[in-house]
Specification:
This protein has 2 domains: about 100 residues, no CATH class; about 160 residues, Thrombin, subunit H. The chain is built from 3 helices and 12 strands. The strands form 2 sheets. The chain has a 6-stranded antiparallel beta barrel. Strands 6-7-8-11-10-9 form a 6-stranded antiparallel barrel. β7 and β8 form a beta hairpin. The longest helix is centred in the N-terminal third of the chain and has 73 residues.
């Protein structure tokens, strides 16, 4: 082969272009120019939007295994949690079934004992739901208004409760609304009984919006913090057994015959929306007997004494 036909150019590995320092300076200047142009004129924004749109399907496809792995872990964890909750609910259901069976047995026994002793049947209280419209504008009272009135059968004196316990009592009734005085009001009072000792007393509102107090209780009376107070049912208004408050603190003063007992209401009125209005027990109780007429002799003596 003739020597003139050989390619004497160096291979690409040995070719030399611009020096590396020059390339660094040029590309650095280009990068600075592009950054300044993008921040000032947003020249790269359309290109960035096109690239993001074009790469979105690729990103979604590549993210499928990650999502599948995460979803699989969540599914297995949720399945394990669901199985644990199912076992817990089954245990609670069995306990509730046992409790319901005992309650039914006690109810039947109570009915037989009442029939044996010829007592009147237990009073069944009528109820209706109501919604709280607004609070009373008076800042010195604790009252709310309900969306039920005389047209819906609400009567003055009706107890108002929620799922936690007694909230108050209807004090004024209008055709389409009713005013409820809460137990926290300074003018509110309710007869209660200590669920532990069965001691009867009266709970009063303090007016501070947070606590109640148990008045006229002797300093040496058996009252402890944490005791539950329920309605006694002896006032002819509230059914017996409704939660009213718990004893928060007992201050036995040496200089007073009565203890200062602070109560925490069982039903907090903050944020309540729906309540239950009960029919007063006095509606179903028999009327009180009238006092017997005075004898003629005693009446004549009284007339003579007046003369």
């Amino acid at each position: 082969m003739p020597l003139g036909t050989l390619d004497r150019t160096p291979p690409p590995f040995f070719r030399q272009g611009l020096p590396a320092r020059t390339k660094l300076v040029l590309f650095s200047a280009l990068a600075l120019f592009l950054m300044a142009a993008d921040s000032r004129l947003a020249l790269i924004q359309p290109l960035r939007a096109v690239a993001a749109t074009a790469l979105l399907p690729v990103v979604r496809v590549l993210n499928i295994p990650v999502q599948a792995w995460s979803s699989g872990g969540d599914y297995l964890g949720g399945l394990r949690q669901a199985l644990d909750n199912e076992n817990t609910m089954r245990q609670r259901l069995a306990a509730q079934a046992e409790h319901a069976a005992r309650v039914d047995a006690l109810a039947q026994e109570n009915a037989r004992l009442r029939a044996l002793l010829e007592l009147r049947p237990a009073i069944t209280v009528k109820t209706q739901t109501a919604e709280v419209l607004y609070e009373a504008p008076d800042p010195f009272s604790h009252k709310v208004f309900l969306d039920r009135g005389t047209q819906q059968g609400v009567a003055a004196g009706s107890p108002v409760i929620n799922e936690a316990g007694v909230l108050g009592q209807v004090t004024r009734v209008y055709p389409l609304s009713a005013e409820v005085t809460l137990l926290l009001d300074k003018d509110a009072a309710i007869p209660v009984v200590n669920a532990r000792t069965q001691h009867r007393s009266a709970a009063f509102g303090t007016g501070d919006g947070r606590t109640m107090e148990l008045r006229f209780v002797a300093s040496n009376d058996d009252v402890q913090a944490g005791d539950l107070l329920t309605t006694s049912g002896s006032d002819g208004v509230y059914p017996a057994g409704l939660a009213v408050a718990k004893v928060a603190a007992v201050d036995r003063r040496a200089d007073s015959a009565f203890a200062r007992i602070t109560l925490a209401p069982a039903a907090q009125p903050d944020g309540i929306r729906h309540v239950l209005v009960l029919e007063p027990l006095s509606v179903q109780l028999p009327p009180r007997p009238e006092p017997p007429p005075e004898p003629e002799k005693s009446r004549g003596k009284k007339d003579g004494a007046r003369r």
